[in-house]
C-alpha cells in the first residue's frame, strides 16, 4: 500500500532522495491529501498564516533570448513587441502601493543593452520616489525578474530601488539537468545560456544584496522525477530564499510542439507535489504559486497555496499589453483588470484559511535569519 509508505516518509525529519522521489510520484487522492496536509501545516508553522501579494508588472516583451519553450523568444515574429512607458510603470506601482500590496515584481524579456538597463534604473528611482512615505520609509518592495545581468547591473538596480530590506530577484535555472537545459535552450553556441551561468547569477545576486529567488519548470518532456529531486537539492545548495516554479506548458510561439506536454491532471498534481516537497525540504522560504498553475485549472493558484506556497503574483500590467506577454498557451487573466484580479483572489485565498498580508513586506524568513533580523519574523510585521 502506498499510503503506509507515504505516511512513513512524511513522519521522517529528513527526506532522502528516494523519499523525495516517492512524494513527487504521488497521484492517488489519499496519498496526495496526506502530502498536502503536511505541507500546509508546515507552512503555517514556519511562515504564519499570511499569503503575500507581489503585483506583477510586465514591462516589455522584447527579448534577446531564444528559449525554445517560450512564446516571446526572439525568433517568434508573430508577437507584437511592446515596452511600457515609465509613466505607465510608475502608475501601476503606485496603484499596488495604494492598494495594500507590500511589493511589486518587474518582469520583462531579457535584454542587457545600456538603454534597457537605464530604463529599469529610472523606473526604480521613480517608483521609489512615488511610494516612499513616513509609514513606508523604503517605499514599495521590489522584486526584479529581468534575466541574467552582470554583477554591476544588479548593483545599479539595487541602488536605484532604494529598498534594501525588500529587494528581491527571481532568476530561474529551469532545470538542473544539463542535457535537458541544453535541449530547452538550443545549441546555437549562445554560451550565456549555459546552466553554469544561471548558477553564477544566483551567487552574484547574493553578492549584490538581493533576497535570491529561483525556480524550475515542472513536467518538461524528458524530465524525470530524479531530475526534479536534483532541482530541490540545488535549491538547498544555493540556500535559496524564494522559489517561483510552475508546470511546463506547451507554447504555440515556442518550438517544442513536437515534444508534447503532460496531460493536465497529472501535470497539475506533479507541480503541486513539487511545491509541497520543496516546502518540506527547504523550510522557511517564500514559495510563489505560479500563474501557470491557474492556466491548467481555474483554482490552480489556491491549490498551490494549499500545498505550501505563500506568495501569489496578481497581474497589474495594463490590459492592452497582456496578450503580448504569453510565455505559454492558455495564460489566464488576459481580460481582468487589477481590481478584478485582486478582489476575486482574496476571497479564494480566504477560502483555504489564509489571509492576505496587506501592507506587509513578507520577506523570506530564511533571509531574515541570515541577516540577523529574526525579530522581524513576527507575522504581524508591517512593511
Ligand atoms: N511553460 C511554463 N513556464 C514557462 N516559462 C516560459 N515559458 C514557459 C512555458 N512554456 C517560464 C520560465 C521562465 C519564466 C519567466 O516563465 O520558467 O523563467
SSE map:
Blueprint: H1 2-10, H2 17-25, H3 29-47, E1 50-60, H4 86-98, E2 103-108, H5 114-131, E3 141-145, H6 151-161, E4 167-170, H7 178-185, H8 195-207, E5 211-214, E6 217-218, H9 225-237, E7 242-247, H10 264-282, E8 286-289, H11 291-296, H12 300-306, E9 311-312, H13 319-322, H14 338-350, E10 355-356, H15 365-370
Parallel strand pairs: 1-2, 1-9, 1-10, 2-3, 3-4, 4-5, 5-7, 6-7, 7-8
Helix pairs in contact: 1-3, 2-9, 2-10, 3-10, 4-5, 5-6, 9-10
Bound molecules: 5'-deoxyadenosine (5AD).
5'-deoxyadenosine binds at residues 69-70, 172, 174, 217, 246, 248-249, 251, 254, 292, 327-328.
Explain the overall architecture.
This protein is α/β, with parallel strands linked by helices. Helices cover 44% and strands 12% of the residues. Strands 1, 2, 3, 4, 5, 6, 7, 8, 9 and 10 form a ten-stranded parallel β-sheet that branches. Strand 3 (141-145), helix 6 (151-161) and strand 4 form a beta-alpha-beta unit. The model has no long low-confidence stretch (mean pLDDT 93). Bound molecules: 5'-deoxyadenosine (5AD). 5'-deoxyadenosine binds at residues 69-70, 172, 174, 217, 246, 248-249, 251, 254, 292, 327-328.
